[in-house]
Amino acid sequence: MPPVEFTALLALATAMSFSPGPNTTLSTALAANRGLRHAMRFVCAVPVGWSALLLLCAGGLGAAVVAVPALRWGIKAVGIGYLVWLAWKLSQSGQLGEADAARMDVGFWQGAALQFVNIKAWLLSLTIVAGWIIGREDSLQRLAVVLPVMALFALSSNFVYAAVGALLRHWLARGRRLLWFNRAMGCVLVVTAAWMVRA
């Protein structure tokens, strides 16, 4: 891959991975409520799920989703519904002890599966497959470069957001700070869901 294309890939990866979205919001919220160690299951799940999505898009699933509007709308509807449900659960937790499995707990496999209903993940996967992989003579070599780079960005961005959430944990434990923080994170998820409606 020429240096210019690789630089463009890094710029896209930085912008998309480190901008707020469902994954980074959940990483922050999980670490703030349950601690960094608990959030790491989700943080590690994101690159696994996203890598699987990228591989499937490169294998032709992306073209099928683009070609079949009902499938695209189905993915979008499930993703929006899940984000709104998570936002509701999150907004109800006002104390660290309340953020238990009954309130909000996103494990490894849920985190990996979330990538398949995350419109931002789909857009990034489709953009990368169309711009850097499909139609190139060296498509497999390009995929071998792109996949670990993007997985590393997914892991590092979610870890950074989770670390911020963990740093805020003790400060949030005072008064009603955690409740308002959780409601703010819930609002970010709802705004993301609203964006997904229009995407």
Radius of gyration: 17 Å
Strand content: under 5%
* Range of helix content: over 70%
Structural classification: mainly alpha
Please report the distance between the alpha carbons of the first and last residues: 30 Å
Average pLDDT score:
81
- Total number of β-strand segments? 0
Q: Which runs of at least 5 residues are low in confidence (pLDDT < 50)?
A: 98-102
> Biggest sheet: strands, sense, closure?
none
Secondary-structure element pattern, one letter each: HHHHHHHHH
Shape: globular
* Integer count of domains: 1
Q: How many separate helices? A: 9
Write structural notes for this entry.
The chain is mostly helical and 199 residues long. It has one domain (22-198). 80% of the residues lie in helices and 0% in strands. It has nine helices and no strands. It has helices at residues 3-18, 22-34, 36-58, 61-67, 69-91, 108-114, 119-133, 139-172, 177-198. α1 (3-18) runs parallel beside α8 and α5 (69-91) runs antiparallel to α9 (177-198). It is globular and about 60 Å long. Mean pLDDT is 81; it is low at 98-102.
